[in-house]
Design a protein that fits this description.
The protein has about 170 residues and is an alpha/beta fold. About 45% of the residues lie in helices and about 15% in strands. It has a six-stranded mixed beta sheet, with helices on both faces.
Amino acid sequence: LGVGDEDVRRELLQFKGLEGRQEELAEVRGVHFVNDTTSTMPEAAMAALARFRKLAGKSKLILIAGGQDKGLGYKKLTDAIRQGADVLVLLPGTATDKIGIELRSKKQELRIIEAKSMAEAVEKSYEAAKKGDWIVFSPGAASFGLFQNEFDRGEQFVEDVNRITKK
């Protein structure tokens, strides 16, 4: 196509990713926030968990997840949550119900927090975090009910994170 290797290399190194897709949004007092609102399937949330668990290292990974079920299975996601998350903050919805049932069916050390809104989910996540921790918003479910769509859901997450930065 007439594009040189060096031009391609330079552009790839500068590429920051796409909005709402495992987007490293902000760092507030040493706590990292990730916006993965486009994660509307369990497999997408599993991919985010795997990636950010490695980045978090020995620090906590706090996952904000849940929403409406699209008729998908959540067993593999709950297994990944058990292995990769230290704290789980659940948004309301039918997928959340499935995730909760699956997680509570086995003994575990995972701390589970329920939130009624995005603002509450972000606030409770931040309260559970300390410097070096990662808060990953990767719902693994649809946004219907509580939000207009996944983009509205992501915008609310960004707004709530921005509110924390101003405190």
